[in-house]
Amino acid sequence: MTEFPATVASPLSRSLSRPLLAFTACAAIYMVLDAYGLRGPWMASMKIVPIAILALLALRSLSGLTRTLTLCALTFSALGDLLLALEFSHGFVYGLGAFLLAQLIYAGNFLRAADFRSRRTALRGVPVLIAAILLARTLLPAAGELAPAVLVYLLAIVIMALCAAAHRSDSALLFAGAVSFMVSDTLIALNKFVIPLPMAGTAIMVTYYGAQLALLYGLARARA
């Protein structure tokens, strides 16, 4: 994807096309190298480059409190990426904590323009709640001593997805980004606690990078 939706002014779309191409290229390079099993601090640094590019796009395409909150969410996401990529004691818990803050900030951002009384919100929100309940029943028994932390994070991402579902902009892209984020985190949890998944790393990053990009697109569209 190389341009923002038609609802965003065309001059802005043209100004963002190069950063979006850079985002796609950097994300693809990281995923290829990760699939080959390369590890180390330099790989952790490469992992956050696409998120840094999205932060640049947020600076250019958003404004006011929406931009501030989005940048904070992206910052904590990048921190979570680093903590999960660097192998050290309790790294998973710290990474989970960073992403927890990112999810809560995103939720607060979406909540500012949420309408939970609409039929559309219910149609989107009910499947999210059903999926969350089924996921909790699968993950929590398998998570052992990490079950409380996993439960808190699951609640946070469900809240984020419900707030995206209720956004008054009616942006399907915004909701798609929230659902993709849930899918990415579900893959991480299943791969870690339940059963190793084939090509888990690639699937996790495709849905994660796609989620962050879709959330930014959705917010830019809502602003337009």
From TrEMBL:
Pfam families: YhhN. It comes from the Bacteria. GO terms for molecular function: hydrolase activity. The chain crosses the membrane at residues 20-38, 44-62, 92-111, 123-140, 146-165, 172-191, 197-220. One of its GO terms (cellular component) is membrane. It is found in: Membrane. Keywords: Membrane, Transmembrane, Transmembrane helix. Belongs to the TMEM86 family. This is Putative membrane protein YhhN. It comes from Microbulbifer rhizosphaerae.
